[in-house]
Every structure is written in C-alpha cells, then in structure tokens.
C-alpha cells in the first residue's frame, strides 16, 4: 500500500513538473505522507528537503528561500503536545514574506488533510494531496 501511494505521489509530482534534480520541500509532522513523499522523490531522483514543523516563520522564510522547491508538501495542522497546532498557516506566512522580499517563484503547495481544519487557500497554488493522488493512473 505504501509503495502504491509512493508511485502515485511520484506520478503526481511529475505532472506538477518535478524532474530529476528538482527540489521538493516537505513541511510535515510525523505522518505516513512524509515517508510517501520521500519514496516518491527517490523514484524521480528529486531532492527532498525537510522543513521541520517546529520552525518559526522567520526560520521558514530562510529555509523556503534556500530550498528553491518547485513543490512544497505541508499539512493543514498537526497534533502535538495534546493540542491541534497550525502547520500550513505558518508556511503561508513564510511564503508571503519571501514573495514580498522578492523571493523565488511561487511553488505549488500540496496540503495533507490531517486534522480537517479550515485553512486559507491560494487558488492556483494550493492543492489537496488526496485529490492530486486520486487523479493518478497508477494501479500498484
């Protein structure tokens, strides 16, 4: 099942323009999708860059600039320390600050629906992970 999901994710990343040597930034808590993204990047010879969910917005601004990622994968929110904490909103702030400072072109952001929380959405940039993977043809 994990390998099938990795195959689907690799196909989805390819459709989003990821090629060998491109970077994919992963800003996820410890969830299966993090492993799936790693395996998908390996299939494509893409470079997986980790953006820890513990980073502050200023740290994320620097790391997103450094990553120069074509695609970023994040979650709506995460469970830790007994609470639901925002994840995507922090990445959104970092990307907005980076763009305001003349940062790299706007990456596609894949969003894992982890906590079913309302999240801000940038049409044309943000896509739901599960919807992108549903639209692949891989059958395992």
UniProtKB/TrEMBL annotation:
Cellular-component GO terms for this entry: cytosol
Ranges of residues in domain AMP-dependent synthetase/ligase: 2-86
GO molecular function: acetate-CoA ligase activity
Cross-referenced SUPFAM superfamilies: Acetyl-CoA synthetase-like (SSF56801)
Keyword Acetylation among record annotations: yes
Pfam families, alphabetized: AMP-binding
Keywords: Acetylation
InterPro entries recorded: AMP-dep_synth/lig_dom, ANL_N_sf
BP GO terms, sorted: acetyl-CoA biosynthetic process
Protein name, UniProt field: Acetyl-CoA synthetase
Organism encoding this protein: Streptomyces lydicus
């Amino acid at each position: 099942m994990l390998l099938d999901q990795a195959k689907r994710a690799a196909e989805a990343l390819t459709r989003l323009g990821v090629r060998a040597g491109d970077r994919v930034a992963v800003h996820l808590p410890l969830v299966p999708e993090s492993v799936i993204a790693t395996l998908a990047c390996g299939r494509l010879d893409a470079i997986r860059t980790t953006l820890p969910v513990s980073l502050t917005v200023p740290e994320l601004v620097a790391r997103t600039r450094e990553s120069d990622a074509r695609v970023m994968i994040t979650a709506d929110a995460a469970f830790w320390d007994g609470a639901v904490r925002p994840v995507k909103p922090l990445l959104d702030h970092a990307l907005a600050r980076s763009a305001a400072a003349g940062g790299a072109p706007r990456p596609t952001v894949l969003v894992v629906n982890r906590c079913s929380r309302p999240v801000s959405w940038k049409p044309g940039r943000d896509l739901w992970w599960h919807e992108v993977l549903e639209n692949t043809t891989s059958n395992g």
